[in-house]
Amino acid sequence: MRKAVISLVLVSAVITGCGSAEHTPRGTPSPSAGEARQLTDAEQVRISDAQQQLIGTCMRRQGFEFWEAERLSLEESRTLGYVLDDVGWARKHGYGSRIQAKEAAARASNPNLAYRRSLSEQRRQAYDEALDEGVDAPVIAAEIPGGGTVRKRMGGCVAEAEKKLYGDPRAWFRAEKAVGHLRSLYVPRVLADQRFSAAQNAWSRCMKRAGYVYRDPGAARQSAVARAHRAAEPEVFEAERRLAVADATCARNTGLRPIGEERESHYVARLRDRYGEALDTHTRLQHQALDRAEKIVGPRA
Fold first, then answer.
1. Does residue 300 lie in a domain region?
2. Which pick of 39, 73, 98, 201 has the fewest CB atoms within 10 Å?
3. Does any domain span residue 298?
């Protein structure tokens, strides 16, 4: 049973490439490695697409059918971050609730899941082993900032795809988890920072003039998320859209995003003495994966 659960998670998440937007208090860059350029959303999506194609090629080579995920447009695939300041995007998509509904529908109708269910028990086991080796896969571990350890089973076509992109899946896993969990260390400092707080207060005053009372962008977005399940209703989506436009307009007028990005970079830099190696490895392997992905798939429209 556990083997099936592991593979179902991989099929519905890694294989479909669907995920929600990040809502951490930061701008578009990830924690930077020195002065190295951080990947854009478009470049990260290209790596994800290449990974799917590699997994599909591997699965078909082992005698199984495989369908790559329905691809959203590049515009639909953007990461919002904590601060939304693209007024045009907000005017069209609000906070992206309809995009998230589209992703959920794609996960639910994923043909890989239906195909797996159609297999005999023996073939289903072989499918799981081909995909990720299930419970028999080697386990890799990474210590995370702030304490604790995360583990991941790494095998099958998923491991093969990561190796072709990143070269060393273990090094990538350790760096990715370290950098991702750095947020628990620097986000509270950004939120408490005087310059960021002043900009956020200015954003709140701007929103009040527009007819909305929220202390920060997270609160505004959360109010829309609470109604997201009704986004198919025109009046609900219109309310989301109006709120997102006001949010983005105030963020742009107060410079909240560039101030947040600068403060984030400042506090991440103060962590480099301890986590510089992880930051550098993360950026280096991302760029390596992008170079390889560009030879496998084209950019999304």
1. no
2. 73
3. no
Q: What tokens does 161 get?
A: 């795809």
Residue 4 CB-density burial (10 A; 0-12 exposed, 13-18 middle, 19+ buried): middle
CA dihedral 58, 50, 21, 171 (to 10 degrees): 80
Gap between the Cα atoms of 133 and 292, Å rounded: 25
In this predicted model, what pLDDT tens digit does every residue of 195-233 receive, in sequence order?
A: 999 999 999 999 999 999 999 999 999 999 888 888 789
For the stretch 84-120, pLDDT in tens is 999 999 999 999 999 999 999 998 999 999 999 999 9
Tell the residue number behind the tokens 């578009």, with chain if given.
28
- Count structural domains, the chain: 1
- Beta-ladder partners of 142: 150
Question: What percent of the chain is helix, strand and coil (3-state, nearest 5)?
Answer: 65, 5, 30
- For residue 52, what are the domain limits? 2-293
Interatomic CA distance for residues 187 and 206, integer angstroms: 23
Query: b/e string for 160-187 if b means 16 or more Cβ within 10 A?
Result: bbbebbbeebbbbbbbbbbbbbbbebbb
How many Å apart are CA 47 and CA 296, to the nearest integer?
A: 9
